Amino acid sequence: MQFDPSITSLRALRSLAKTGNVSLTATELGLTQSAVSRSITTLETMIGLTLVQRTVRPLKLTKEGEVVASHADDINQSIASLGERLAELKHNKLGSVRIGSFGASASTRILPRLIKAFAKQYPAIAVNILEANDAQTFLNLQRGHVDLAVLADPGEDYETMPIATDQLIAIVNHNSKLAQYDVLRPDDLAQDAFIMTLGGSEHYIRQWFNQANVEPKITHYIYQTHSILALVGANLGNAIVASLSLPQTTVDVCQVPLFKSTTNRIVLARKYQTPYSKAAELFWRYIFQSINK
Questions:
Q1: What is the pLDDT of residues 211-268, one digit of tens each?
Q2: Residues contacting residue 128 through CB under 8 Å, at least 6 positions apart
Q3: Cα separation of 31 and 34, whole Å?
């Protein structure tokens, strides 16, 4: 079977998954309702599977339809990326560079200074940050949704450039007796409620506790660093976070070093042997030259 779906049919299915309504999908895509229905029916005939549950309202996709729609997202992203690159070539512009960021550590403490310095030398190049969690940022780099990405460990299949180091640090309420310690051990933090971050450091935090055969009393699982700070500030538990994820100043909390804290290397990563845009190549070279002066 030759599988050659039209872009219209994929976009229609992707939109229908969100709207549940042919009319709304037609409006979103600038098509007629009949064109939307016809494109999806043609796709179903091509692959021999039913993609839409037509007997329910709002309309829903079948499991097969959900699979096709998930791939349609990637295809749409790739087409958008291609459009941007072609526009750069057509107008002979330096264009833009897309950088994936794994969260607060990169977006607030690493990228701003790099981008600011780069902008002084290349003001015509736009630098766009796409922030997500570690796994999604890696996936965005893998699928080509970003040109470069700031990550902790993308693996050997990617070209990397060290740009920072990060370290785990304890966050305790300023009135806590732990705030007076010079360094905290797993046993110290295991006595009270513990707030576990979902921002990407959970594996390293659990590893730090496990090395001492200690189990923290986890009461909350929190993604945002500022939410963790608020909970610790309200004396609802202690936490461990990556030091670079913290703001320059904190209120009602104290930062205390950990005994044998885990140190992570933060890198700028890109795929090997990829035809990079001129903007992405310039950014990579600029950062390389800056850190190797």
A1: 999 999 999 999 888 899 999 999 999 999 988 888 878 889 999 999 998 788 899 9
A2: 96, 97, 98, 99
A3: 8
Cα angle 91-289-129, degrees, rounded to a multiple of 5: 55
What's the confidence (pLDDT) of residue 73?
75
Tell me the domain boundaries of the chain. 7-76, 89-157+268-291, 164-264
Structure tokens at 27: 């409006």
Tell me whether the CATH fold assigned to 89-157+268-291 matches the one assigned to 164-264.
yes
Q: Coil, strand, or helix at residue 252? A: coil
* CA nearest to 130, candidates 94, 106, 155: 106
- Assess if CATH 3.40.190.10 describes domain 164-264: yes
What is the signed CA dihedral for 156, 158, 162, 166, rounded to 10 degrees? -70
- Domain at 7-76: CATH architecture: Orthogonal Bundle (1.10)
- DSSP character at residue 267: E
pLDDT tens figures, 39-48: 899 888 888 8
* Segment holding 127, helix H or strand E: strand 126-131
22: which residues sit within 8 A by CB, 6+ positions away?
16, 33, 36, 37, 59
Q: Is the pTM of this model over 0.90?
A: no
Q: Which residues contact 90 (CB under 8 A, 6 or more apart)?
A: none
pLDDT at 85: 67
Distance CA 94, CA 88 (A): 7
Q: For all residues of the chain together, what is the average pLDDT?
A: 87
Return the number of other C-beta atoms located less than 10 Å from residue 117's C-beta: 12
